[in-house]
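Handout, section 4.2: multi-component inputs.
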Amino acid sequence: MPSYNRRSFLQLGLGVTVLGAVGAGCSPATPASRKQDSRTFTIYWNAGHGYQAYKEVIDQFGKDHDLQMNWQKFQWPDLTTKLTADFRSGNVPDLVEEVSAGTGTQYGLAGNVLALDEFAAADKEFGFPGDFLDQAVVARQYEGKTYSIPLHLTANGLLFYNKELLSAAGFEKPPATWDEFLEVARATTKDKVSGCALNSDPSYAAPYYNQQKVDFSDVGAKQFMTPADGALKAMQWMQDLIYTHKVSPAPVATTDYSGPQKLFSAKRAAMFVSGPWDIGPIRQGSPDIDLGLAVPLTGAVQSAAMAGAGLMIPAKAKDPKLSWELITKLAAVKVELAATKEAGMSMPRKSWASDPAVAADPNLATIAKALAVVAENDVALSASGKAAQINELWKKSYQQMIIQHAPVGPALDDFRKQAGAAL
Amino acid sequence: MIRRRQALTAWLFLTPAVLFFVLLFFLPIGNQLLTGLYDADGAFTGLGNFTRAFEDPEVLHSFLITLAYAAGTLVVGTAVGLALAVILNQSLRGRTLFRSVLLIPYLTSVSIIGLLWRNILDPQVGILNRLLEAVGLPGQTWLSTHPLATIVGITVWSSAGYTMVLFLAGLQGIPGLYYEAARIDGAGPWRRFFAITLPLLAPTTVFVSIIGLIGTLQQFALPYIVTGGGPGNATSLYAHRLFIVAFNDNDFGYASALSLLLLVVVLVLSLAQLRIGDRADA
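Output:
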């Protein structure tokens, strides 16, 4: 029979206290959203899209439903990382902004986000898909199911130019073709100013290869960057802008896509190719720049790449009906118009496009023209589940060609081989 | 009876630490081992993910550049830290201030360091090129032309203060008597450094190199922030590759296998360094 004295009780008490404290600390971490009560509504959003127009809708939604709105904003790569981890843990947000068309399809086919067709069919007033431009809808559908609702519809391929710099070089009109672009870029390259600025983000190569009628992928045929001669021409032309004609600085590898816009805003570049998301930062950061916005260039054809975020509901969201209700409010035409007024962003609704305020805006008219020439997306790539992997391979090849000055032909061949193997 | 009671007390105090390591280290490692046996679609592959790593050119590339990064950082970092420690071990005016200032980068978040250097080194808008231009020198494009060496340089810059502090502690443990005797025997500063300082700092050097090696083999944040692993895959270190496999390719089985292989490499290299250190001590 063990004997207990004051010392042994003290030891026991201390041990139990420490054990309890450590036990509490080591207990499985309660995921943040579970720890919060069920009245918390979590949204993942892109940091660049935190417009006041959306904030007002979200705040009002919280008040109407007595919800604590947890609006989390991330850069796209961080949002994707967090979401991937959330899907694995099962602890998901209630609503997520989708980086671009097709991402939702990829998640949806893996069972991670919901198909939204039933919600849309039961909510005639929302007007989906009838009131949405076809290209924004079709790019989000696979085998009859829609996995996200378009929030924005934009075109990457718009030509941003500094009117003052072009005028000083003797150009009153922006270039319309590749030859004219090179001519203007040469004429405006002086001292510390570059005629143009290329991006380190490989998605910004899309307008150029689309203008040579090149398709990024044809999953059915397991082909990438075809036809090969067009791809070679496009990528060689981009490389030559930097290393042969010396009208663009070599971009620096980074996760930030805003390098050309920053150079343009600092009056160190006369032109760059991008989308409407760069209008706001230029207007706010450099209001003294006389900004010109022109339609996409014509290579073999005039073309642009489709871009624009969407909205998707995780399959394990607490209350998908509530999430859908917020989607309908965020993608309502009056909110679209408010966001356009605030940030110059273009939107996917037909009723937005026909609004007098939109029709009268010259920049939006230019964007509308660009949207009319966007190249078709290969939805099968998203459906393959390998889009992210193949995009990473493309990033490597693109940076080797554009930043490291690797020979274009072998780099493209290498990419095709690796992408084909990944499929 | 007393021994039993002592054992019970010992276990009571040890239990929190044991629980801590079991729950937060060994269980996750076990879970990772289990995950590493399955492919991206959830099918059992046995050791397939582990053998795949040895045939994956991207993984082999990332492993080789990680070794180059670790070697560069360790050699240059140790030399710089030691040099700073020897200088600031002298009785100089303001040495406490210098020591504190040199430690600041180590105390700063790696995110801030990454963004800071990213902005300094930017060829178009970075301050370094403006300074170089101001004194008539050509601008640099190191982030594009020498990306890995640039990451090594930033790592050395941020960790030199910490290495210096470790070497300073080692230097202050060397009795002044040895230096006095050497001086009387006519040994100059270099002779004293190579015959006394360097050999007696061997344990510190081993410690610095082991800690440095573990840190550099696991480096992720700096290349992720400064270059995003690019250009191409020039700075896609092993941990960055692992991150891409897990969160971009969504292949957690393969990523788990890769992380376990890294654990094995770190263990083997650390044990080898300890052995070398023991021999040097003997």
